[in-house]
Design brief:
The protein is mostly helical and about 290 residues long. α2 crosses α3, α4 (about 115-125) packs across α7 and α5 (about 165-170) packs parallel to α10 (about 265-285). The protein has helices spanning about 15-20, 90-100, 100-110, 115-125, 165-170, 175-195, 205-215, 250, 255-265, 265-285, and strands at about 145-150, 150-155, 225, 245. The chain has a two-stranded antiparallel sheet with strand order 1-2. The relative contact order is 0.23. The protein has one domain (about 15-145, about 160-220, about 255-285).
Length: about 290
């Protein structure tokens, strides 16, 4: 099953809120059909002095939304000078612990490559596929809830309950501090974006564009019909929910991020969109500094 389908992405749920909730190693945000926890319980690494980022040799990108316009809090959340992307994990992890708390960081976030995972996943949310191996968060437990109806297999209303803890977490995050952390880590994000293959692009423009793309996700009226896997031969999949697709060709053709919003239910999607509107306003400097 390709990762762009409703069953795609093995650890998406926590991201859309945290990933697009700016640089949380991250915006998840969404639990895909298959979720098998892999808890990371290693202790936090100590703070270390790392080499300063070397000046980029890439041509300067065209900028539509300068990071200088963002209006987060004014507190210093990371040390200066910043380390290189390769040496940034200890600095980023300590900052995330300050923002989210140690327990949340150790139980929710992937253990390494925070900046690169965040940048790659933000970029992929507006594409058809969002590779699970790049998610900056760990999967959580649970499986897809479906119902048999006269019209076929549909997404069960109770499926939305699986996302409520995540949505509550996203709403509780101090957006101003999250934006401040993102701004202070931005040189690392830009470098990682250039390494990803976009030397002439500006990552903050991509983040704003992805947020706009997610906000444009239309509401879907229930029931949402699913297509089970068409398995040929004697061997049946042990976990068929991994391979479900949307029956509506329009829904199935959506981006990975929009599918995530659709399958988490209209009320959860509405609450996440409200948070994204708040993030976008601070990113563009159109809301008062928090």
């Amino acid at each position: 099953m390709p990762t762009s389908s409703p069953s795609s992405g093995r650890s998406g749920q926590w991201f859309l809120g945290i990933a697009v909730l700016v640089a949380l190693g991250v915006g998840a945000y969404f639990l895909p059909w298959r979720t098998e926890p892999e808890p990371f319980l290693a202790p936090l690494p100590p703070r270390v002095e790392a080499p300063t980022i070397a000046p980029s040799t890439e041509p300067p990108p065209t900028v539509h939304h300068p990071i200088e316009e963002a209006r987060g809090t004014t507190e210093a959340l990371v040390p200066s000078p910043l380390p290189s992307v390769d040496k940034s994990d200890p600095v980023v992890q300590h900052a995330l612990v300050d923002l989210l708390g140690r327990e949340r960081v150790l139980s929710l976030l992937a253990p390494n490559e925070y900046v690169r995972r965040f940048v790659a996943t933000v970029d992929n949310l507006a594409r058809r596929e969002a590779a699970a191996r790049l998610w900056p968060v760990l999967p959580i437990g649970g499986r897809l809830a479906v119902e048999e109806t006269a019209d076929g297999l549909v997404l069960a209303p109770k499926n939305a309950q699986r996302y409520e803890r995540f949505v509550n977490l996203v709403e509780s995050i101090d957006t101003g501090r999250a934006i401040a952390l993102y701004v202070q880590l931005y040189p690392l994000c830009q470098r990682a974006y250039q390494e990803l293959g976009f030397p002439e692009k500006y990552f903050n423009d991509r983040l704003v564009g992805v947020i706009d793309h997610l906000l444009a996700t239309s509401d879907v009226v229930a029931p949402v019909t699913l297509v089970p896997p068409d398995v040929q031969g004697p061997y049946k999949p042990a976990r068929p929910w991994v391979m479900y697709r949307f029956a509506d060709p329009d829904l199935e053709s959506r981006s990975a991020g929009q599918k995530m919003l659709i399958r988490m239910g209209p009320e959860n999607a509405r609450r996440l969109k409200a948070k994204l509107v708040e993030i976008r306003a601070l990113l563009l400097g159109t809301a008062p500094r928090q």
